[in-house]
Write a structure and sequence with these properties.
- The protein is an alpha/beta fold.
- The protein is 55% helix and 13% strand.
- It contains 15 helices and eight strands.
- Helix 4 links the parallel strand 2 (84-91) and strand 3.
- Helix 1 crosses helix 7 (178-200) and helix 3 packs parallel to helix 4 (95-104).
- The longest helix has 31 residues, at 262-292.
- The radius of gyration is 22 Å and the shape is globular.
Length: 395
């Protein structure tokens, strides 16, 4: 009787793990079939036919360590200067930083929020914007791009359908510490599974919070509907409800600073998981209507929020393999199959530059990060809408 109960319990846990793993495996392999077409931005310069005006919004909450470098990078873009407008929303930054910004950006906004959030910063900027743009580009205060960035983005926006938005390829600009390296690899796996893998089978990619480009008219209306600290997930749901396609521009890089220590990593992941739970609850409400109207993108997004976080998925698979091997060799086979498939699929989507000796040293930090993530999950408050700042320049 006890053996039968344990076998059923083992199978139920394995099924939930297997479903999450197979989702990752499928889209990881699908991502190998996807290649976005590189653009020839120089053609725009040669013909002088730059037609798209961009409003670049950069929310900066206590980002004194990185914001000036980002603004300098924006000013070096090889794009007609009268066709992009840089707006920085400076929240809780030093007076000296604001003085420098006022001399270098097109618009500097200094709000006085009682409770700060990125969503509030974006709403504040749109309310006060006077620049007539066709597209809005949202960047983080630590983002760096190539000089041809806007030219490439212009090429995509010119050729895509009206009901489309662009998510650029966010990549790590630092991976010197084990935590930063694992964070960088995790982001590339997400790019493969939730972006290029989805686009390869015709599904919308996932937004990621920065490097996002929206039609101005749509964004100016949607931004005022944001309520939580997971503004990218809220925007994604709004887009999917309206049957917008999210295009992953794999060849357009946005370099992002990765967290360098475990404490900041845990806080960041806790915030992300909270946003995921809030997104799931919102998506479930829309699920019946999504099924009726065959909104595959929204159905997929709702299912996506039910997935076990990938780090915990690996950990559970490892524990399942070890425990079942000791208890019942026959029962352990199914666990080993899932683990091998999962690890192989993750390995093939990790960029080659990360497959170094440093990666194997970084893996030693994995159990500690998983432990912190579990603690973060236990503290989740699905009603919490407070903004949690991710510190940059912290070693």
């Amino acid at each position: 009787m006890i053996y039968h109960f344990i076998a059923v319990f083992d199978f139920l846990i394995w099924m939930s793990v297997a479903l999450s793993a197979l989702y990752v495996v499928f889209f990881a392999f699908a991502s190998r079939l996807y290649k976005s077409k590189p653009t020839n931005s120089s053609a725009f310069h040669d013909k002088g036919k730059q037609e798209i005006d961009f409003l670049i919004l950069i929310p900066a909450y206590a980002e004194d360590a990185v914001i000036c470098q980002t603004v300098q990078n924006m000013l070096q873009l090889q794009y007609p200067r009268n066709q992009f407008h840089v707006t920085v929303i400076s929240d809780h930054q030093q007076l000296s930083t604001n003085q420098w910004l006022s001399e270098h950006v097109d618009t500097l906004l200094i709000p006085r929020f009682q409770n700060s959030s990125k969503a509030k910063a974006l709403q504040y900027a749109i309310q006060r914007n006077t620049y007539k743009a066709q597209y809005v580009l949202v960047l983080d205060a630590d983002n760096i791009v190539e000089p041809t960035f806007l030219g490439q983005l212009c090429d995509i926006c010119t050729n895509m359908s009206e009901k489309s938005v662009v998510q650029c390829h966010r990549q790590a600009k630092n991976h010197q510490t084990p935590v930063a390296l694992l964070d960088a690899i995790s982001e590339e796996i997400n790019n493969a599974v939730f972006r290029s893998g989805h686009n390869s089978v015709g599904l919308p990619a996932a937004l990621i919070g920065s490097g996002m480009c929206f039609p101005y008219q749509w964004f100016s209306e949607a931004v005022h509907l944001l309520e939580t600290a997971g503004e990218d997930k809220e925007l994604e749901l709004l887009l999917l409800k309206q049957n917008y396609h999210i295009l992953f521009a794999e060849h357009i890089a946005v370099y992002d600073e990765k967290v360098s220590n475990s404490e900041v990593f845990h806080k960041q992941r806790s915030r992300w998981i909270t946003a995921q739970v809030q997104c799931l609850l919102s998506g479930i409400k829309e699920l019946p209507q999504s099924i009726i109207y065959k909104n595959i993108g929204l159905i997929d997004k709702t299912l996506q929020q039910l997935l076990i976080p990938r780090s915990l998925l690996l950990l559970i698979c490892l524990v399942g393999c070890v425990v079942s091997s000791f208890c019942c060799i026959t029962c352990s086979i199914k666990w080993w199959i899932v683990l091998i498939l999962l690890m192989f699929s993750l390995w093939i989507v990790i960029p080659s530059q990360y497959k170094t000796r440093q990666l194997f040293h970084a893996v030693l930090s994995f159990p500690v990060l998983c432990y912190g993530m579990i603690l973060g999950m236990l503290k989740i408050d699905r009603h919490n809408k407070d903004f949690t700042h991710t510190s940059h320049g912290v070693k």
